[in-house]
Amino acid sequence: MSTLSFVYLPKGVGAKHGAPINVALVKKKAIERCGLSEEEALEMIVKMIDGPVAINVFDMEAVTTTSDGVVIPGAIITMAAGDMGKIHKEFGVLHMEEIEVTAELIKEEPHLAPLQKLYPGRKLFRGPDPVKKVIPVHNVVMTGKAVNNNSATEVMNVVTMEEMLLPILGQLQAIQGGDIVFAITGGVISVGIGMTVAEKYGRVFPTRQFKAGETAHDSAGYAKTLKANIPCIVAPKEILAGYILDVLECGLIPGKELGCSPAVLSVAYAMGAKIDFENISQRAWLELESVGIYRNLLEQPAIAMTREEIIAQADTIIPGLLDPYRVKSTECFQEISVEV
Description:
There is one protein chain. This protein has a domain at 3-177. 26% of the residues lie in helices and 25% in strands. It is globular. The mean pLDDT is 97. By secondary structure, it is of the alpha+beta class.
């Protein structure tokens, strides 16, 4: 007899109203060790949890990207939504599409160039193939009260209308037992998540719709309000800084190859890395300026900090988050085991 283990965040835990539904994170290898299919594992998990739940399956040996184009290890490969012990057969499960990493892909998506150095040979996943989706527009699954959206980085309760952002790095911290940060999202991150890069099968957009230097929100001062008042679970800023530094050290340029999010621009400035100011659109600058990121300040000479200094001072270098508090994920995400 074997045991399937996963980590579980109960509804209501977190900042403000907390998680609007339950959240379960499970590793692909944990499923494989039990000799289960993904479908069988998802059914077991949803029956263990009382109420609406989002379930995300992780391949820790794969790679993905953040919304602003930073490559990171660990990827969500399947997302599900369940309620009352069931998963909707049509709308409740969606698989992310594996993307073959080729020279042609990297030419089209230059933010992926660091893969060859940092994560050679690993599989790449981001969002689903739109042809294989049942629900149009959004990369979303739903069952009953539970909604799991944007390729498993945002959860909602359709009855209470509450939601929570779950950026990929925060989830990776939780599934690995690391520290996480509970907070209110705030204006800086609300702007930052719109500074995307052009990607095929992206987490939000299925096609290469918005290039580095552009804004997907395209809403000037309104962008900072879009997700500002909802709770989120994120990685500590030194974790984010480390991954941004990794790709900057590979030669990527914010505004040209990387998205122009406040986090990326702030780390690049601290490092003394090149920023393609001219390629950042005026519409993007309007949004950045609304949260205190000004071109004239970024263009001023600065004493470049070392990688170690940036990581140590990440909380002051990277802006964003309201009322953050750091906790050990193991104090909030419960480990649950079920005999197979």
